[in-house]
Design a protein that fits this description.
Layout lengths: L6 H5 L1 H9 L8 H47 L5
Length: 81
């Protein structure tokens, strides 16, 4: 996440999210708020992608570990008669 966006944008992520909770004041700069909302949406979409990819990698690693353990147990079990 830190390498995908400039550091000031990462630091201001909470401010971008705050616009979703508290509406901007009527006298604010509309273009600035719109830009901040767009940055926040883009950052959260990319975080979602990272989380999904990390989850799938974890699932694959877990599957390999389970298969490896089951193969070890099969080899150490006595043969069936």
């Amino acid at each position: 996440m830190l390498t995908s966006f400039p550091l000031p944008d990462v630091i201001n992520l909470s401010r971008y999210s705050w616009h979703c909770v508290v509406p901007p004041k009527p006298d604010c700069d509309r273009d600035k708020v719109k830009g901040e909302l767009e940055k926040g949406i883009l950052m959260y979409k990319r975080m979602k992608s990272y989380a999904q990819a990390t989850g799938w990698v974890g699932v694959l690693i877990g599957a390999v570990i389970m298969l490896k353990i089951s193969m070890i147990r099969r080899q150490s079990a006595p043969p069936l008669r």
